[in-house]
Sequence to fold (125 residues):
Amino acid sequence: MGYPRTNRISEEIKKLVSHLIMNELKDPRLSPLTSVVAVEVTRDLRYANIFISVYGSQDEKENSLKALQNAGGFIRKEIGKSLKLRYTPEPLFKMDQSIEQGMHINELISKVNKKDVVNDHEQDA
Fold:
């Protein structure tokens, strides 16, 4: 659980970076299926860990991450313009793996459920 101020700043940065990805950044390496999942700002407001998710291949994920890291200066400048803070947080982009992990867990659960159905049918026979 964070502090209310850093939580508000995190949400504002999340909205702003999402808008920049959709409308402002023109890097061809950036996948159109890139989204900001979460933002965590450090207590001293020096860094903003921005977790992104990219739907696509591993190459698309890596290219999108590189494109965002290259645009870090522009993104920081836009954060500074939008949010009136003493220090503008340095954006640090990280890949969020939670969606892939959730899909993998769903696949495992489906396999277990199928095995249970097969075992129930064998016992009934």
